[in-house]
Amino acid sequence: MGIEWFRDLVICIFGLGGTVALIILVVLAIMLYCRMRPLFDSIKRTARTVENITTAVETEVAGPLAQIASFVQGIRQAVGLFSRFGRNKEED
Fold first, then answer.
1. From CA 76, how far away is CA 79, in angstroms rounded?
2. Model confidence pLDDT, tens digit, residues 16-40
């Protein structure tokens, strides 16, 4: 029995140990995923709910507010335009 035999034995032991460790890690990862899956589903549902609420607020609140704001801005510009015409006539 030379040093080569011990080297081969150590390589086999570490190879077997590495394979066992890899299998254990895979099993632990699968178990962790199975335990976390309800949490992931809950997060997905919450995100979907937030998306629906955001869409509803955008269509029901932000859209009409933007229309009202643009209408008010148009009125302000028209009033400013007419007031400039009025000032120019008063100065002449």
1. 5
2. 999 999 999 999 999 999 999 999 9
